[in-house]
């Protein structure tokens, strides 16, 4: 079959990438979707088990930092567009070891663009770079991140994402390279690696393990249902303006401690525990170094220009997420390959 686009989605075996792949494979049977992923600790092909046999989907194992592997996949599949999600994504890991973040997030992004630039001769291509609101830094109690907010990254993770964003813009301005960008707030939903707050808390409550809350738990994050992020990427990829960036978020701010307590309450009910039982697992631990106080996104440009809005209330999405983790407890064991306990011990028990 002749496909109208051959889209390379990088990082498609990860959390958000797997939701983007599922959406595109199901919604666009006329597109060929090539999932290019190195399968690091965060990548898991079982995230895509429901679509892996579709005729418009193919997985290629590879590293975005490798010139040979990227060139090969571009040439073999005649790649027309890229949606770039592959990244090292966990702030705590970036504090422990920033170099992997520089390599994948910065060098890998530039490598992808260099190769696309050398092969794309017409002007009908799109390179959609998926980024984060963390590049804007840390907010006080007032205000929202706008597209025009100056970059002020403060963790090695956000510094690497900010650097990649700058390279993406530089390629647009210098070479007329056809970029589109999005900066999204914290995502939640199914298939989220259990080192991030929400899946970690669910895992620990279910298994009656202490819940580590950094500092006083007063830091604020702005949570968005991962499928709404995937829908935003769909809109921006198709209808966003070349050279522009779009903020993605759901005006849904929670302090970490309120969110953790809310998860405890949901799970007490679902696990037939006494109200308040799971909250006893909460343990305030040493704060994260350089911990950003508050993230909050103004997504009005995306809403007004492209007609996107979040589809799900947080309470509804959180309940669906909890249900998914309860039904898929073996997923957590499998994806962490027994390493969850080791990771957890290393991070929190010294
Ligand atoms: P994730 O860690 O769950 O998945 C990352 C994926 O990239 C994995 O499948 C991994 O195997 C792959 N990968 C890593 N290094 C690679 C390499 N060198 N070559 C090829 N593949 C590689 O991450 P996520 O949470 O799904 O985030 C995806 C993207 O969205 C990232 O760019 C992240 O910065 C951005 N983002 C994430 C959030 C969030 O809340 N998780 C919010 C906004 C933006
Ligand atoms: P995380 O899910 O790592 O996302 P990010 O740091 O990219 O926003 O963390 C979300 C918030 O939860 C952040 O303020 C740090 C905090 N946190 C904890 O308090 N305990 C934990 O065990 C984790 C992983 C995070």
List the main descriptive attributes of the protein structure presented here.
binds nicotinamide-adenine-dinucleotide; binds thymidine-5'-diphosphate; 350 residues; alpha/beta; 12 strands; 7-stranded parallel sheet; 3-stranded mixed sheet; 2 domains; Rossmann fold; 12 helices; UDP-galactose 4-epimerase, domain 1
Largest beta-sheet details: 7 strands, parallel
CATH architecture of the largest domain: 3-Layer(aba) Sandwich
Rounded to the nearest angstrom, the distance between the terminal CA atoms is: 57 Å
Give the total of domains.
2
> Please, how many helices?
12
CATH class of the largest domain: Alpha Beta
The total count of strands amounts to 12
Question: Averaged pLDDT, please?
Answer: 95
- Assign a percent range to the helix content: 40-55%
CATH homologous superfamily label of the largest domain: NAD(P)-binding Rossmann-like Domain
- Catalogue the ligands: nicotinamide-adenine-dinucleotide, thymidine-5'-diphosphate
Task: Provide structural commentary.
By secondary structure, this protein is of the alpha/beta class. It folds into 2 domains: 5-188 and 223-248, NAD(P)-binding Rossmann-like Domain (Rossmann fold, 3-Layer(aba) Sandwich); 197-220 and 253-291 and 315-348, UDP-galactose 4-epimerase, domain 1, CATH 3.90.25.10. 43% of the residues lie in helices and 17% in strands. The strands form 3 sheets. Strands 3-2-1-4-5-6-10 form a 7-stranded parallel β-sheet, sandwiched between helices. A 3-stranded mixed β-sheet has the order 7-9-11. A two-stranded parallel ribbon has the order 8-12. α1 (15-27) packs across α7 and α2 packs parallel to α4. The protein starts with a strand and ends with a helix. The mean pLDDT is 95. Bound molecules: nicotinamide-adenine-dinucleotide and thymidine-5'-diphosphate.
């Amino acid at each position: 079959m002749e496909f109208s686009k051959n889209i390379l989605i990088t990082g498609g075996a990860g959390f958000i990438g797997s939701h983007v792949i599922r959406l595109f494979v199901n919604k666009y049977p006329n597109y060929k979707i090539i999932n290019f992923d190195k399968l690091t600790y965060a990548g898991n092909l079982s995230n895509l088990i429901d679509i892996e046999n579709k005729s418009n989907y193919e997985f290629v194992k590879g590293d975005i930092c490798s010139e040979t592997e990227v060139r090969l996949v571009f040439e073999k599949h005649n790649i027309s567009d890229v949606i770039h999600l592959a990244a090292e994504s966990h702030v705590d890991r970036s504090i422990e070891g920033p170099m992997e973040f520089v390599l994948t997030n910065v060098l890998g992004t530039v490598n992808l663009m260099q190769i696309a630039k050398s092969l794309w001769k017409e002007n009908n291509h799109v390179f959609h770079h998926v980024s984060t609101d963390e590049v804007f830094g840390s907010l006080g109690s007032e205000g929202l991140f706008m597209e025009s907010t100056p970059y002020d990254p403060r963790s090695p993770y956000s510094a690497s994402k900010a650097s990649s964003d700058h390279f993406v813009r530089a390629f647009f301005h210098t070479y007329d390279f056809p970029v589109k960008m999005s900066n999204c707030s914290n995502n939640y939903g199914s298939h989220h690696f259990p080192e991030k707050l929400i899946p970690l808390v669910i895992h620990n409550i279910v298994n009656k393990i202490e819940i580590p809350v950094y500092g006083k738990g007063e830091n604020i994050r702005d949570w968005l249902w991962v499928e709404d992020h995937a829908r935003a990427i769909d809109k921006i990829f198709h209808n966003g303006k070349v050279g522009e960036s779009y903020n993605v978020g759901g005006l849904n701010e929670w302090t970490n401690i309120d969110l953790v307590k809310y998860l405890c309450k949901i799970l007490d009910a679902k696990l037939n525990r006494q109200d308040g039982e799971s909250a006893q697992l909460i343990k305030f631990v040493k704060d994260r170094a350089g911990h950003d106080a508050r993230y909050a996104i103004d997504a009005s440009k995306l809403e007004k220009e492209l007609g996107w809005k979040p589809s799900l209330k947080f309470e509804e999405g959180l309940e669906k997420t909890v249900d998914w983790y309860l039904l898929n407890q073996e997923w957590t064991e499998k994806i962490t390959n027994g390493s969850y306990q080791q990771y957890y011990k290393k991070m929190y028990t010294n």
